Amino acid sequence: MSAPPQDDFVSGTSGEVSGIRTTAKAILADALDDATAFARLQPYRLGRAARTLPRRRVLVLAIERTDTPNLLAEAQAELMGSRHDVRIATAPAGRHGKFENLGTLLAQHPPTDRDWLLVLDDDVALPRNFLDRFLFLVERFGLQIAQPAHRQRSHAAWQITRRRRGSLVRQTPFVEIGPVFAFAATTFDVLLPFPPLKVGWGLDLHWSALACERGWRSGVIDATPIRHGLRLIATSYARTDALDEARTFLATRPYTRAADAQRTLAAHRTLKRR
Q1: What is the pTM of this model?
Q2: Domain extent at residue 169
Q3: Is 62:122 a contact under the CB 8 Å cutoff?
Q4: Looking at residues 129-153, what average pLDDT do you find?
Q5: Could you tell me if 163 and 152 are in contact, meaning their C-beta atoms sit under 8 angstroms apart?
Q6: Parallel, antiparallel, or unpaired: how do β-strands 116-120 and 57-64 relate?
């Protein structure tokens, strides 16, 4: 279903991968993406290069739904296996919204001594060696706001966030509010604390406008793709409520229109910066 014309802050698609034909097509595309990366020796070269990044201090925040199965334990184990200094803080979702909970968690665990803030949903499958390679590429290409790309079989409402075959990193004007995003410490004074939103639609487009004003780079890391979609998406809130919240939030704030967010500003297929 298409969004009304006035709602220029929504992607216009659900992004959910379901049905036999669609799922089979996505599985094949993922296999081809992986094969392309291996043929280019991408995992080996990236793994070796990632070891050159100095040890970073990372705060990870995650909100967990305790009433349904999730992947948070597996994600935590993967993150703690990183060579970086990782501190993880989690909290149950309860009756509050995502960014309401994140705001409370952030107040309890301020990132004052951290180089990076990573926010993670509880239903995300991370690839092996995720954090080491993700942070290396983010810093290699000078990004201040970043997210890993979605695999083809992953739920991704924004097409710009899906993995591009053969790409390592893409600079984009947009990084979505989940399921995984990262802020550099240089952005904390502007982007934190989080506003007390329940769902947060439109917040990422506001981040985009703020980044543009300040000359920050944002982007999608294709070389560390995640899979999102353990459970049905958007079952914990009503779409109408999410839209109403976004309209109110964006009414008095600058934001990038959805059509302008779906652009690739630069694509990098090798570790050399242009």
Answers
A1: 0.94
A2: 20-266
A3: yes
A4: 98
A5: yes
A6: parallel
pLDDT in tens, 153-197: 999 999 999 999 999 999 999 999 999 999 999 999 999 999 999
**Residue pointed to by tokens 């990366």:** 37
C-beta separation of 256 from 205 below 8 A? yes
Could you read off the pLDDT of 9-49 as tens digits, one per residue? 998 777 778 788 888 999 999 999 999 999 999 999 999 99
27: helix, strand or coil: helix
d(CA 3, CA 247): 13
**Number of domains forming the structure of the chain:** 1
Measured in Å, how far apart are the chain's first and last C-alpha atoms?
40
Residue 8 lies in a domain: no
Q: Residue for token digits 């703020």?
A: 210
Closest CA to 65 of 262, 246, 233: 233
CATH (domain of 191): 3.90.550.10
Q: What is the DSSP string of 46-100?
A: HHHHHTTSPP-EEEEEEEE-TTS--SHHHHHHHHHTSSSEEEEEEEE-TTS-HHH
Q: Nearest Cα to 253, choosing from 215, 205, 216, 212? A: 205
The answer to whether position 273 is within a domain reads no
Residue 169 resides in a domain: yes
Please answer whether residues 5 and 256 qualify as being in contact, where contact means their C-beta atoms are separated by less than 8 angstroms. no
Beta strands 116-120 and 145-150 are unpaired
With a CB cutoff of 8 Å and minimum separation 6, the contacts of 159 are 11, 13, 15, 262
Q: Among 161, 78, 79, which residue's Cα sits nearest to residue 116?
A: 79
Answer whether residue 62 is part of any domain.
Answer: yes
